[in-house]
Write a structure and sequence with these properties.
This protein is α+β, with helices and mostly antiparallel strands. The chain contains six helices and 18 strands.
Length: 290
Amino acid sequence: MIINSEYTLKEAFTCSGVGLHTGVMTTVRVLPENLREGRYFVRVDLPETPIIPAQLKSVLSTTLSTELGISNATIRTVEHLLAALTGMGIDHARIEIDGPEVPLLDGSAQPWVEAIATVGRQTLEGQSQKFNPFKITRPISVQQGDGFVAAFPASETRFTYGIDFSVPAIGNQWYSYTANPEIFATEIAPARTFTLEEQVEQLRQAGLIKGGSLDNAIVCGHSGWLNPPLRYANEPVRHKILDLVGDLSLLGVIPQAHYVAYKAGHHLHVQLVQEIHQDQKLTVECSPEP
């Protein structure tokens, strides 16, 4: 077993904004969690303030975002905030929200990361039963068409992603990132969500992206980007890594591995989370007694 320290925030912070799909304004307050309950959401606007764990068991939908829920309480578009907490090494956090969707802010994880860096993190003493870091010991993969996500045994945790779009401004892009809070903050977190101009009207007619705008997403047409400049030449593929980190965080602790994805999305990300969870469950069940 890998023995790591566990971290929570030193202080609480608050962010407000509009949800990408619902268009609803919400306020999020992220607080230290000293009881080692992991990362979880609390719908403070609902009766009895239901708690929604940021775990695989809470996943309801992966349509253009990751949505979590229990009974009648749901929370949508959790991936950017969860990626920020995970990428910055925050293992335990209480996330209070007064509506159904996490604010999109500028479309990236940078505002969340800046808030986390401002309040800082603190170490929790001892080791909890729920916090169980482990390594991937055999290749695990999921595939749909020519898209896939895989986890390979590795000496460090690394993420490699590839995308391929017909629009020339995006085209084929690959990027690789080794897990590290400082690198995450500068190379991954600022990458914004993106979409194709030709898909915008279709998504709106489907009742989605009600809160989307050129202020919180980069939009690409056949003749180029509608709202340049990009923060990186390959900003789209970096954002896909951001989404992947957020979705993998539903494992509680991301296992040490090299994660490789190509033409994937939230659906395949969460499928891999399911496979890893099941593999780890079987490993624990089959482990010999000491």
